[in-house]
Amino acid sequence: MHLLNTLLKRTNAHETFGHQEYLCIYVLCVHPSYREKGVETALLNACVQLAVALKLTAIGGLFTCGASQATAQDTGFSLLSEIRYSQWVINDRIVFDDPGKGNYSAAFMGKLIPPEERSDQDETSSLDSASKQESPIVWK
């Protein structure tokens, strides 16, 4: 946990994004049997849509393996801060001496949500609100 807290502090996301609020992804896991099937990309896109629905202008996340970092980059996230596992030393000992093939760092990655995505959500919300007003839901 100390590694992730250090990464968050080093990033200083509020200043980097230029906003006081942003959606932060702390854990993104996909079961091995569902990897390479688009599930991780769909989850990241769902997180972005959640940020849009919450009217947030930025989203960031902690990505601790090479595969999730590549997926985040493909989804439009940029590297904001990184700690190489080989350089994470506590009490003169490397903590992660073998993090696995392709897993070289923990990274904080983020993206600003473009105004056009936010305005698309506003238009959809107002259309949804109008349709809800015309036909109220009645529970029986």
Automatic annotation (TrEMBL):
It comes from the Eukaryota. SUPFAM superfamilies: Acyl-CoA N-acyltransferases (Nat) (SSF55729). Residues 19-65 form the N-acetyltransferase domain. Pfam families: Acetyltransf_1. Residues 115-140 are annotated as: Disordered. GO terms for molecular function: acyltransferase activity, transferring groups other than amino-acyl groups. Coiled coil: none annotated. This is N-acetyltransferase domain-containing protein.
